[in-house]
Structure formats: C-alpha cells, structure tokens
Amino acid sequence: MTFSRILGTGSYVPEKILSNTDIEHLVDTSDSWIRERTGIRRRHVVDERESTVDLAERAARAALDAAGLDPREIDLIVVGTTTPDRIYPATACRLQARLGAGGYPAFDVQAVCTGFIYALGVADRFMRTGSARHALVIGADTHSRLLDWSDRGTCILFGDGAGAVVLGVDDVPGILSTHLHADGNYEDLLYVEGGVPRGNGVIAEGNAYTKMRGNEVFKVAVRTLHRIVDETLAANALQKSDIDWLIPHQANIRIIEATARKLGLPMERVVVTIDEHGNTSAASVPLAFDVAVRDGRIKRGDNLLLEAFGGGFTWGSALIRY
Ligand code: ACO
Fold it and tell me: Where do the domains of the chain lie, and which CATH numbers do they carry?
C-alpha cells in the first residue's frame, strides 16, 4: 500500500497588522468585545500590491525548504482558496509558473474555510493511487478583500495568510484519514453575492462582500464539528485520549473551546493562533500547524486532529500521524 506523509510545513502572513483598536475607528465595536466574543486581538492584512499567489508562494517555498525538496521535484499542486487573484488561471497554476515548473496537475479547490482540508483530502487520494509522489498542498486567502468595513458582524473576524505542506509517498501512513462534507442548503447563512459577469463584461454582479448570520453559523459549526470528531475517531478505531494535538480552524475561540471539550483535551493541547491571525479562511489550519511545528510543540509521531468548517457549508477533518 502507498500512503502520504508530511515532509515539511511552511506559512506566511503579510506584514501589515490591523489591531482591534484600529477597527474601533471603523465601526461601533470595542477591543474587549472582540476579544471576549471571538478571541481575536489582531490580524494581518495584505496591502494593495500583495495578492493570494504572493502569500501562497512564500508559504510554499518555506514548506519546500523544511522538506529539503527542490521545487522541480513537485508533481502536484492543490491550493484551497476562495480569493484567487483572477477568475482564471487558478492560483495553483500561477504558483506552478513561479516555481519554474510545468506539465503536472495544478488546480484550486474552493471550499472556503475548509479549503485546506479539502485540498489535503484530494492530494492524499492522488498519492494513494500512485498519481503523484511529491505534492504541495496549500491554503491561501486574502479574505480582507471580501469585507464590508462598515459591517461589524464580519469585518472584525478575518485576516489574510497562507499555509503549506509538502506531502511525500511512503509505505507507512502519515495521513491516516480525511473526511470531507458539504451541505448546500445553508447558503443564506454565509455567502458572497458577486460572481462572474452575466455576459456584459462587468466584474462582480451584486457586491463582493461576505454576508453572514454569525450567531446561526456559530450553532451549526459547533454541532457539526462535534459530529466530525466522532466520525474521525471511529474511522481510525482511536479513543479521544489517543489525540496529542487538535489543530482547529481558527474562526472563534468559543467554537475551538467547545471542540476541545468534546475531545476532553486541555487547551494546552490545542493549537490556537486566532489571537494573532484572526480567521484566515483556508489558510488558518495549515498556518496554525506550521506555527506549532516550528515552535517545537508538535513532534514526529504525534497524532494530530485537523478540522474546519466554513461557507458552503463545508466541513472536514484529517487525522495525521506526524
Ligand atoms: N462589536 C460589538 N457588538 C457587536 C459586534 C461587534 N463587532 N457584532 C455584533 N455585535 C452585537 C450584536 O449587534 C448583538 O447586539 P444586540 O444583542 O443588541 O442585538 C450582540 O452583539 C450579539 O450578537 P451576536 O451576533 O449574537 O454575537 P455572537 O456572540 O454570536 O458573536 C460572531 C458574533 C463573533 C460573528 C459569532 O457569531 C461567530 O463567530 N460566528 C461563527 C463564525 C464562523 O464560524 N463562520 C464560519 C467560518 S467563516 C467562512 O467560512 C467565510
């Protein structure tokens, strides 16, 4: 049997920082409300010159360095993103060109905040079937570009960033399982209206702002993530106590705490970056992953549970023996 395992991780966040106090000047909110209700203290945002592929490239190169691989050894790129620079080509294709390569498959998957987990699930299936030997899997988003800076229900939540992993084939499983789900019936709770032009050449019909009924999304997210924890443990015949680290999507500290309680994990075993990064959409899980690998918390052999929930609705998890 062929499996995939993680050879290296990388991440990048833009230099520009927006604190809660900065946002107090834009909408009727307060630093204390944002910290208490979400856990966020600041977020990094792109400037006018930066784009999603810039962030993806930085994270990809860091992951390649960590894996000790040359970009020419990669034979698959999958990017989870909802904020591609262009309608096409895909961010993955633009990245492939920047890495000085071509010929092998490179494509984006759009599953909003679950984008990285979807990308990982797809890449793992390529590796298991012998269709790729070294994959770059990335979550990258510039969600700040989809925000209405007069809507306090959304503009406080999001930041920009990218996270990447390099996968290599192995006889021993690193990725034990991935679980991907969607339910398109919840569109009204979380969406961006704008889409491709309707033949008139005008970009973004409607507007391109994130619209969210936060409180309702919150309740579904908590319920759904509880279910996926059970599903993931059962699929691997593991107990809660077998999990060394939870690497959750960083949407709200209260959602993260609820999932940790479900797993019986103390918060010291949960990777939390929401205070520094906010919700970076598809980047949030691989960004948190890389932070905890680089600061030495996550060690080879640890069992990691990754999970995410987002627009679509989409949700998913991955169980990894690092
Ligand atoms: N500052 C101050 N007050 C605020 C703010 C703010 N930024 N935002 C809302 N409020 C007020 C509301 O107006 C409301 O006031 P009222 O009681 O006078 O009517 C009160 O605070 C409570 O509002 P709720 O919406 O119930 O607040 P809640 O505790 O649910 O927090 C939040 C809102 C942070 C958005 C939360 O619901 C949340 O995190 N939801 C989930 C987000 C999520 O997981 N999204 C999925 C991933 S994102 C993606 O895929 C793109």
Answer: 3-171 (3.40.47.10), 177-321 (3.40.47.10)
